[in-house]
Structure formats: C-alpha cells, structure tokens
Amino acid sequence: MLMADGTTGRTASADDRGVDLAAQLTEVARTLQQQEDAQDTLDEIVRGAVGTIPGAWQAGIITVTGRREVDTVSMTGDVVGEVDQIQYDTGQGPCLEALYAHKIVNVPDLAHETRWPEFADRAHRLGVSSMLSLQLFVRDDDLGALNLYSPDAHAFGEEAEHVGSLFAGHAAVALANARQRDNLVQAVQTRDLIGQAKGILMERHKITGDQAFTVLMRTSQRTNVKLRDLAEVLVRTGELAPSAAR
C-alpha cells in the first residue's frame, strides 16, 4: 500500500497478529508463574482468560475430584457460579461435556440450543447467550475445565477457540507447577509438625524418636485421624490419648 508520504505501508497481517498473540500469551504465562499458590493461580487464570480470549465476558473453572466431586473453584462473577450450579442440578451442560468427553465445546446460542434443553433455558434466563468450554487438564481421576460466558450470541468463533486452546495449555502448565509447589510446602510442614510432636512425646515420656513415632502411628490408626492432623493437635494442645502414650 502506497502511503501519502510516498512510503510503503501494509495492513496488519496474520503474521502480525500471531506475533501479538505470542507476546500476550508469554506475558500471561509469566504472570501465572508469579502466583504464590494454586488458588492464586486459578484466580489469575480466569482473570487472564477474560482479558485474552476474544468474546469472553466472564470465566470460571470447574474441577472434578475422583470423577465424583464437582466444584467451581474460581470465577470472575456470580453469574458463573449460578450457571454452573444449573449444570450440577441438571447433570447436563457444556462444562460437564468438556470435562468428560470433549476438549472444546462451543455453544453459539443458548436460546436455540437443543443438546441440553433444560440447562440452556435456565442459563439463558440468567443473561448468558453463548459459552465456550475448554478442557484444562486430565490427571488420573481428576479433571478440570475452563469455561467462558458471554451475553451475546455467537460470541466465540474460530479465533476464540484457537486462542482459548493456546491459553488453556499455558494455564494447565502453570497450574500443575503451582500444585507441585503447594505439595512440597505441605510436605515440609508435615515433616516439621511430626518432628515437633515426636519431640514432645520424647521429652514427656523419656522415649526414643522411633518409639515416639510408633506412638503417633498407633494413635493415628486407632482414632482414624491422619498422622499430620494428629501431630498438629498434639503440638497445639499438648494432648494425646493416654492409652496410646502408654
């Protein structure tokens, strides 16, 4: 294109948009990695999704633990929780479909949706007209899906699906890393608690470290209380079942 000043200009090309998207996703990944724990990461994922994926008005994340317990673990607004609850109540909807069956589920117009009629009718009455659900992770029996909501019909086209898939990939990696960090922190805290509990028993009953650990293990088994929880109570209150201490 010949510009007024005689220079040659050009309109934004697909390559330009690709570079912009790559830069945006890199920034998203950097921001996600900076979060302190898994919950902060989940909250940043839904905020980032609204700012990154075309057409997104609200966003939320649904998880399934052990393929039984379904929960909305993060959301940008109350309408997300309300729509998700309709899915839990009816047992149908795009988010559940994305969790169990497909990686991407696009709902162009809830007013004319026939796959889940009861869900579609109730969700549309809440002001949601279209949705896009993306499988976030599958780990053993645990599942996760990122869900996007719009008050406009046909809000999520091919570009939204493409960007959403890339975003979900970055989000899944960041979430896995955050959960790994959480597990490591919890493991260190558990070790320290058990060490403190053993110290209390050793001092109180003049026993060895191995004997103190045996006391904790037996008490845990008899009371059906996790070893970490038992140690935490002992450290906090100084109390342990007399029969187990003997």
TrEMBL record:
<keyword id="KW-0418">Kinase</keyword>
<dbReference type="GO" id="GO:0016301">
    <property type="term" value="F:kinase activity"/>
</dbReference>
<dbReference type="InterPro" id="IPR011006">
    <property type="entry name" value="CheY-like_superfamily"/>
</dbReference>
<dbReference type="InterPro" id="IPR012074">
    <property type="entry name" value="GAF_ANTAR"/>
</dbReference>
<dbReference type="Pfam" id="PF03861">
    <property type="entry name" value="ANTAR"/>
</dbReference>
<dbReference type="InterPro" id="IPR029016">
    <property type="entry name" value="GAF-like_dom_sf"/>
</dbReference>
<keyword id="KW-0808">Transferase</keyword>
<dbReference type="InterPro" id="IPR005561">
    <property type="entry name" value="ANTAR"/>
</dbReference>
<dbReference type="InterPro" id="IPR003018">
    <property type="entry name" value="GAF"/>
</dbReference>
<keyword id="KW-0805">Transcription regulation</keyword>
<dbReference type="InterPro" id="IPR036388">
    <property type="entry name" value="WH-like_DNA-bd_sf"/>
</dbReference>
<feature type="domain" description="ANTAR">
    <location>
        <begin position="174"/>
        <end position="235"/>
    </location>
</feature>
<keyword id="KW-0804">Transcription</keyword>
<dbReference type="Pfam" id="PF13185">
    <property type="entry name" value="GAF_2"/>
</dbReference>
<dbReference type="GO" id="GO:0003723">
    <property type="term" value="F:RNA binding"/>
</dbReference>
<protein>
    <submittedName>
        <fullName>Transcriptional regulator</fullName>
    </submittedName>
</protein>
